[in-house]
Prior knowledge:
- The longest helix has 15 residues.
- This protein is α+β, with helices and mostly antiparallel strands and 272 residues long.
- Helix content is 22%, strand content 26%.
Amino acid sequence: xxxxxxxxxxxxxxxxxxxxxxxxxxxxxxxxxxxxxxxxxxxxxxxxxxxxxxxxxxxxxxxxxxxxxxxxxxxxxxxxxxxxxxxxxxxxxxxxxxxxxxxxxxxxxxxxxxxxxxxxxxxxxxxxxxxxxxxxxxxxxxxxxxxxxxxxxxxxxxxxxxxxxxxxxxxxxxxxxxxxxxxxxxxxxxxxxxxxxxxxxxxxxxxxxxxxxxxxxxxxxxxxxxxxxxxxxxxxxxxxxxxxxxxxxxxxxxxxxxxxxxxxxxxxxxxx
Length: 272
């Protein structure tokens, strides 16, 4: 598999990390695959969602396996409840375990931010774009979930703006990464979606490429990269993973490839 992320195999697990994040030594992080868990059927095998018809104990065991590989605690994780919106939550110690091992009031949230150590942020995916953010100077981290709706809402820029407002982040200091997600090779949309991009971007033809018959191939990777650059993150500090979930459905969950019946992968990010 080609791409700009580092692939790891530990025990039965396969997962990815971001080279620039690894080099800082400040975080534990990963983007999981579908390989190495105990789930069955359409959730096979490393499903990390409690909302896809999987057995709860299977999902918890999958989280335990991932946490063991990363040497972090499942009790420190905080799971977002994504709705393809742009709401952001700043996570603190009182949120530990929410959505995974304890009941959660983290609802209708598509991005998480924290400056607290040993709290693992978690967002879930099966084609949408995971955006990882790290401010190594102020020691702030964030995850954002950006499908086409979140991309149009420019959730990545809004998260950076929140980091600037609350934690004095300078975007020029930030590292960012776009994780495995559906690529322009596979993401066909209709004219209605392409027209919505026309309303939100000054150069939409870069991201919505016409293939005729009112069909377009949508490039969410470059759209989100452009959004991050607009808010001030330096191009050289943005890693585009360039790993398509639909092209690699044998090791990655893909909502489109699996026709809606599939598990979810996780982006996990924690300050050491």
